[in-house]
Amino acid sequence: MSDTHDSAPRKSTMRWIPLAIVAALGVLLFAGVLLSRNPNRDALPSPLIGKPAPAFRLPVLHEAGRLVTDKDLRGAPYLLNVWGSWCPACRDEHPVLTRFAETKRLRVIGFNWKDEHADALRWLEQFGNPYLMVLTDYDGKAAIDWGIYGAPETFLVDAGGIIRWKYVGPLTDEVIANELLPKLAQIDAQAGEGKPL
To answer: Residue 196 in contact with residue 158, Cβ under 8 Å?
Structure first.
């Protein structure tokens, strides 16, 4: 007789379990929708922000035999833009990057990643060259130190060689206006006040 009374509350509780599961799935779905509104949602936070740019010694695309190091780029801030001729999103980003480079607000350095020399030259001839110089990472080893896992990616490096900002994905006018330029203004203000960057 007691078995019958114990099973009734248990059956009543069991009926609510599917409803609780559906409610939990609904909450997860809603959270996913909210997160999908962030255009940079796939970006992993870079552990390099606030740290020195990784040391490198890379060839220059347009100057056979010339090698440039991270130390050669110090002295003024620069934007390091990772791209490849094989990258469809780089083509989407290119007009935006070109317009920004034309402002001469900041040195724009290309980081050609895992590309064939001739393909990279042909791509720049076809779409234009917004870069002050293009460094080439043919085998992708330097990219590992930078934490690069796709193209395009863009880094803002201050005059002292410290990485101040990173963006994963194609730059847009909105990203430049709302993220890059305020960060650059902050760097300029700190430098003007003589504060350590």
So the answer is: no
